[in-house]
Amino acid sequence: MMATARDKTGKVYKIRELLQNNFQEEYEAEQRLLRMEREIEKEVVAANELIMTCEDEDPFVEPENASLAEVLQRLSAVSSQIGEATQKMATIQKEVADVSVRVQRVEKKLGTTLATLEEVKNVMAIGDVARPVNAADSEFEFNPVSSEEELNELDYKLGSNTEYLTKLTNWLNMKIVSEEPNKRLHEAMDLVFERQFLPKCSWKGGGKPERKIPMSAQTNIMKMFLVLGSTRFIAITDAFVAKFFLKKLPHAKERLDLQDYRSIQSLKRASSSQVDSSLVETLE
């Protein structure tokens, strides 16, 4: 644009261009301001949405820090839960181990019970001969064993003659009054054997200075003692009978001497006994 007569110096043109440049700068500045306002508005909206979804967050904490705190809190909670689960697992393992030990104990007791039942079955099988006493049984006569020959004869007769076994067992049950197994065996021993004969016996036959008669070899007599020592409520075992004779036979001589001593004291009508009471209890 060329300058007019009124604007020979071109000032109006320069002022117009200056104004246009100012308008352009103001427009661009305004556009920058609008963009900045829209970006700030977006950030505010995002922050508000984050705050709304995290009710427990501190509104004065920046969103990035709030999210990190939440993650750390959750990790801490998960770690605590893992610790509790580990502790519970250890407790469960201990309980399983305890249950395993109890099961082993039960199995052991069950095995013992089954063995006892087997013994009871054997006792019941032999005990069939111990029927109620009748008049014929009360008239039965038996002479106590006084020699090795009589011992062997009795054992053979008990194993080969069921009727004789029945009568002798019932006759002995009629004589025995105690209900305690050890006392029943003690009474039966005094009924079956002469006291003078028992010092000649031992359980296995060993003895000094000469060999003794083995009582354990008399299997049929021991079976009869198994029946005699048992009751309706208690069933003893072979081991119980063996233990009884192992305890009594070594003191058979002392028991015999004690019997003689008591006989002498009875004749003399002594006022008190001079035998140690503990020895008497052991021998009887």
TrEMBL record:
InterPro entries from the UniProt entry: DUF4806
- Name of the featured protein: DUF4806 domain-containing protein
Top-level division of the source organism's lineage: Eukaryota
One Pfam family assigned to this protein is DUF4806
Q: Which residues form the DUF4806 domain?
A: 141-226
